């Protein structure tokens, strides 16, 4: 058997600190059930179900045909940088310069490089929970210490100024702020950002990694506000990270960017020059077309997400024992399932954790969701509404039935 071949592989110490992006018990169970021929309604997906708009695909094809198939500058083609500067101007009214822009293979890679460029062993990175699963491991991979700050229902699961003040130590290097948040969908208002800014002004050594990848998937009528725009005096301490994956349904193109302090951006670019040299030239051409071309796709897709959100919230809120947070942006619903803990399944198992709830929904409803423990806040589960409305409504009916069967 191939699995028995002896390996002399010895992982570096840093490898032992991290795990692959969550391959949970539920994910393994989804694969098992699907392999056994069972139909599973999958609400775990973290990417838009829409196709990349045609004008973006055509821009990529044109780039290939025009011979734009070579290395580009490490900080992207001049065309892409201009498009990024234009997008930041349009969404936040901020004027950045060329030297303040870094690009990479997705927002994820840019965040990783930003941490690699700045975090020394023992440096602390504040991560409000619930958080995107990758932050703590990205900090650990770079030998930093993730410091998880629990938020509360009263603040809509958003970090407050008091919590920030209490969490900062003389080792704090970064605060990671993700608005709209994955998995909460919470958006920080300008007043809430200003309250955080007031704390940050007292702690000049702390920088803010503002992950704004979902900023344009907002149900408030305007893009989620950025700390960099709300507190212009802190602009050089805020690294704005964004990309085209979510807004333009371009997850597979792998193109993200950051805007911030030119010295930090220079460091990110140095690391980029020694890792991938530059993101794909073709994806850069596509991303430029996405950012500075017609914006109809956003105008069309955001109302669709909003309708699905409303249907999902209404359906789940009607289930005794479930309390969905109403997201202001992104395409996830974070559902409080505390009332289900301690209930018993028809086959006699007592639900002791959100992982148990997730497995019950999978086995008895055929619905795949992700347990809150993956996001650092339990007992919750996350559903994605980046899938068609029929799947969402069928899944919620099935969830209601499986919850109704608990005793
Ligand atoms: N930040 C958050 C909060 C995300 O949910 C994701 C994607 N799951 C990313 C960053 C990274 O997106 P990408 O690398 O595709 O730009």
From TrEMBL:
Keywords: Aminotransferase, Pyridoxal phosphate, Transferase. Pfam families: Aminotran_1_2 (PF00155). InterPro entries: Aminotransferase_I/II_large, AspAT/PAT-like, NHTrfase_class1_PyrdxlP-BS, PyrdxlP-dep_Trfase, PyrdxlP-dep_Trfase_major, PyrdxlP-dep_Trfase_small. Residues 1-23 are annotated as: Disordered. It is an enzyme of class 2 (transferase). NCBIfam families: PRK06107.1 (NF004769). This is Aminotransferase. It comes from Microbacterium panaciterrae. The lineage of its organism: Bacteria, Bacillati, Actinomycetota, Actinomycetes, Micrococcales.
